[in-house]
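EI: anyone free to look at a 220-residue chain?
SC: sure, send it
EI:
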Amino acid sequence: MSDQSQPVRTGDVYPPSAAAHDARRQRDEVLTTHDDQQQKRELRVTETDEPHAGRRVVTATAGGQVMAQFTVPVPGAGVEEATDAVTIGEALQAAAQTSAGERPVDLADAAAVQAAETRATGLGGVVPGGVAAAAQQAAETNMRPGLAEEEKVRLRDVLGSAAAVLPANKVATREDAVAVATAAKRNAPAGGGGGGKGVADAVAAAADMNEKRMTRTRQA
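SC: here you go
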């Protein structure tokens, strides 16, 4: 087996279409596991308005740990609450601002970012010069033998301006969260280590926030 690192392929991000039954089962397992973890960790979302700045700070925590934090506009007169829904790009930036942003980028992170970019843009491949390409390059760089820990590329270096770099963006949904979690899980190190988890958690938190806002808007 060659030691040369390989780019993240479509089959690495999504289960192979040739095994449709297994693919559905794997996705169901990821969704079930994610739901169980969310229930155990009791995701809590708090919103703090900053009227003078015209913004709202939304923070998602679980088990005392900040999973994601977003700054969104405060809806004004005649503006629907749904306009401050969190996008996938904003979720990626939020991941960079949490403790996950301090981790060196690995292949699981790259796969999760690629899945997020694909869901955000609707494009079938990696966008040249985009966040997924940067994450893949960072992962390959970090795998070089003898590279000092302080020289490794961190997740924050790749995702710090994700919302601006993405050529297209969309509001994060539960389906997006499942796709990103699936990619992260399939490419995670055999011994664990949380590869891709920060990205997956941020997109999941964004999706949960958006669902809660949509529910409140409908009930209003």
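EI: The chain has one domain: 18-219.
SC: 👍
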